[in-house]
Amino acid sequence: MDIRVWWKHAPYLSIDDLERILAPVPLMPGAAELVDGVHALGARAAIVSGGLDVLARRVAGELGIEVALANGVRVDSDGRLTGEGIVRVPIHGKERVLAGLQEQLGVAPEMTASVGNSEIDVGLFRRSRVGVAFCPEDDIVRKAATSVVTERNLANVLEALRRAG
Questions:
Q1: What confidence score (pLDDT) does residue 94 get?
Q2: Rounded to whole angstroms, how far apart are CA atoms 129 and 144?
């Protein structure tokens, strides 16, 4: 829906324009520490986001995350947005996306931890041994999680993961 709004107001918006618009979006505090800590523990990190792949890929590249699954935009032969999106991570389908990723990587749910902040992330928790509610938006995600982090710093998620083993 966001893509259609952008396209309505800026029909000549290109993928390059979109990348420039999203380039200044900052990383969440503690993001680098969390990913570095996960890697130091010998684990892998992935992004499963209902947001845009342009931003997810940028964040993954900056943090050294090997897999970033998110939604895309369709472009024409000139790289201009068509107004259509590519849904790879449905809002209420994150659990299925994670299951596919676990199968692809050969990682069992018992060896998976997920981090999320809203009701749409609860499915991730169901496919994971550890579910961390990070600055949860609602009680649904808080109750579904095995751990809750309320401070807006992702480095604190690493401590929750360590406590969970």
A1: 96
A2: 12
